[in-house]
Here is the input.
Amino acid sequence: MSEESGGNKRIPPHEIFIDYSGKSDDELREILEELLKEESKISYQRRILHGKIDLLRAELVRRKKEKVKEGKSLFTDEDIRRLSEILAGEALGMTRNDPTMA
Here is the structure.
């Protein structure tokens, strides 16, 4: 949150509790419009990210198929070592790869 002049804190619309009963119809429409614009921006960013994720996954699959055609292993010794470390950590209760813990 950034601070505006006079020491007042600017709170994003999604973090404000709105007392709907004290707002006029025009104020409610304005708040709704702001929130819909914000949702639209976030939705657009999400679609862009998902597109990038899909492209990266497709490229990785293409490369793996190419390796198989060349008779190469899909997994390197480093891949196996890393997977072993991850699984060993999870067995010990480590949650370093848990995205909900970030």
Q: What stands out?
A: DSSP finds two helices and no strands in the chain. Residues 21 and 98 are 41 Å apart (CA to CA). The radius of gyration is 24 Å.
